Prior knowledge:
Elements (H helix, E strand, L loop, with lengths): L17 H13 L2 H13 L3 H25 L6 H9 L2 H34 L5 H21 L1 H26 L26 H12 L8 H4 L6 H30 L2 H6 L3 H9 L6 H34 L17 H17 L2 H5 L2 H20 L14 H23 L3 H24 L11
Helix pairs in contact: 1-7, 1-10, 1-13, 2-8, 3-8, 3-10, 3-16, 3-17, 4-5, 4-16, 5-6, 5-13, 5-14, 5-16, 5-18, 6-7, 6-13, 6-14, 7-10, 7-12, 7-13, 8-17, 13-14, 16-17, 17-18
Amino acid sequence: MSDPKETQSPALAQSIGGWQIMFYGLGSMLGAGIYALIGKAAGGLGNAVWLAFLMAMIGAMLTGLSYACVGGRYAKAGGAAYVTHRGLGRPLLSYVIGIAVMMSGLTSMATGSQAIIDQIQKLMAWNLDENTMKLCSIGVVFLVGCVIYRGIRESMWLNILCTVIEASGLLFIIAVGVKYWGSVNYLESPGDTAAGGAGSGITLMLVMQGAVLTFYSFIGFEDILNVSEEVKDPAKNVPFGLIGAMVLATCIYMAVAITAVSVVPWQELAKSGTPLMDVASRAAPWFKGIGPVYAAITIFAIGNTALLNYLMGSRLLYGMSHQGLLPSILQKVHPVRKSPHIAVFVLFIIVSILILSGGVKALAESTVLLLLTVFTTVNISLVVLKRRPDEPRSGFEPPVVVPILGALVCASLIIVRLQTAITSGDEAQRTAPLIAGAIVVISLVLYKVLKPRNVVAKIED
């Protein structure tokens, strides 16, 4: 593997403002998962589902504050891989962390493209066979790749459009359902007893399990780190965008959770395949075309997730190449479009292979476990970096207790996730830790095969 400094190429363009990066983070977090997630969470916690979102928000916010700090300090496309290497000085660990983040993005892109075609098929009443579905999914990835290749400015404006559309669906549910607030006991849970009353069935483990489930709805803020190199004044705008996105997402999620159990009994939400659509239908019976509208919103939401993961993945490959962890050809930037076009093309090939293989769903189940491991590592890296007086500072510097607590929370969620996998009757959940472990092993093998040399331990700021 060549020296990362050998390849001379134009730099990425710094063209992302503070509000644009906030929409990037918000769009990456909102996604389409919340539309189905609320029902699963309600099945575990009943009307107290908001507690799961609150606990998940606390855990995510601690790590989010750490990411806001490192994003402002080190505006590098390598993201978590760069921070891990800079903090802990272990190229192998940095490589594994980078591959874990990339696999998370790749599986999200693959599942997202397939979900888009599935939604379009339902909306248009088509009957496509499996092979045609896969080819159409690859077509979606190709179109998204064309936007990424076109440039960061175009990608950001498309993200803002999609984010506004997907947020409008959630805001509509809140608007039509707010009149139902206060109509139920928000501590009622499935495990309540007659003697104990509402809230008697709520245990810390139950809330933690709900938090692990709803934690996925906050995942996305970490993607900001990989585009920080293209942000104007990153020391100020990265913390502003990341924290702002998390605050907005939390407000929306909490309001949606309260609205959902206020309008529809939690027992019905738990059994429903389209819980939020049921909420909207009951709260706004006058809206007759709600099904097609929410199907269209779902398409935009999933498409936005695919767009942002593609964008993140291309920058991650570019950044890891700059570190010397991946072949230097991946750090090439198009002289006109200012996009890492080789990395964009390589991602298209990998995702296409994943789609054709048909094993995407199994990989997707390991995403949360992998990212929790990444979050734990980044928090630990920040603790180490904060102890070095010569390290740069950002416009936002949380006390060292924040990354310490962030690491502890994420490590606790990993334990809960593993315990849930052991006791779960869901085959996909049971195999998720094994798949995550397999990805780590594959990363180690790739590292030995590619044999990265001249790895940059501290790239100039």
